[in-house]
Amino acid sequence: MAVVREFTLPDLGEGLTGAEIVRWLVQVGDVVAVDQAVVEVETAKAMVDVPCPYGGVVTARYGEEGAEVPVGAPLITVAVPEGSDDGSAPPVTESPADGGSGNVLVGYGTAGPAARRRRVQLSPGPPRETVAVAPAGPLPVISPLVRRLAREHDVDLRRLKGSGPEGLILRADVERAVAAPAAAPAPAPGPALAPEPAPAVASEGQRVPLRGVRGAVADKLARSRREIPDATCWVDADATELLAARAAMNTAGGPKVSVLALLARICTAALARFPELNATVDWEGREIIRLPDVHLGFAAQTDRGLVVPVVRDAQTRTIEGLSEEIARLTEAARTGTLAPAQLTGGTFTLNNYGVFGVDGSTPIINHPEAAMLGVGRITPKPWVHQGELAVRQVVQLSFTFDHRVCDGGTAGGFLRYVADCVEQPLVLLRRL
After folding, report:
1. Which of 47, 91, 161, 422 is the most buried (most CB within 10 A)?
2. Quick check: 74 and 8 in contact, CB under 8 A?
3. Is 403 a known active-site residue?
4. Active-site residue among 295, 367, 385, 403?
């Protein structure tokens, strides 16, 4: 005998209400171990393998790949052998070569051996009820979702040949039967008529769902525009000395220093000088909350869209430390392995849109932060240097700020200090 347990989508991160099913890792009838990953989902912040806290036989699977699933909705049901209702022991296991069970969510137990996949015959029964586990038989278990789809379209399952393992009838088999065109009778012969012109059909264009990362970005930017009275100021700066300083650091040996890391260090120094901008606004309480630590977010473009990884306690890190952490988070963003916690909790954002080959922009504040510094491309331009016209490496700096936390004088002072550090990196030594 076994007890059927329902496993629902857990809360995968701060503020997340759902996820999109990217890929199922198990099939109905598979044997799964405790903490074995059963589905890969994409939240608004990261790709996550979701482990199941129960060990047993998968009796049902809810949701197709590409479907949105809210937190708390069922993902799968598992028949857990009697005597191991807490999911502490899977019925059938086989030790894998790597000896691990993959990613484990907090609160779902420790890693266990991955289960060997095999199919068993279960006596039918609705989820959440006790069912008997019978010896393996020759006939597959058909998913309740497949049965319901067949009933809705009057498809006789007895006439279908399943394409799944052991002849299992899948949803795709039913959909193919529904889509199969019925044989139409041949038209009766008649006199040839001139064809009528086809009516003009207006194209509605392609509809792209706003979900996943793109949907989360849209929600946050729209909220920022609705709630934050922002203003933007900008200045051109001569970055020739900054590039020279970076070249000297990298020539001296040790870890390579990126331009973004230098700009990040400049930002932490500027925020120490103008702490009003490392803040958030509690509008209902009508309070400005000035934050003691700088958790520096930086915009990173990936195949999944724009994400903003966060460097924790950036004010405590050296330029080399910032460069290493930015490189680590950027690689994780590109491979889709960032945890949700690494994409939340920022207090200030640095956006280097110069990598796209553009000079300037008006950044939208990353709600609920109070400011964002945007950096354009560094490119040779004519510039008056020491009273003479010269070709220098020039960059445009754009600064968008929440006008509720400060006035233009503070924002201008912040931006001017950043520009001074870009033009004369030795200015930073005064604050080190």
Report:
1. 422
2. yes
3. yes
4. 403
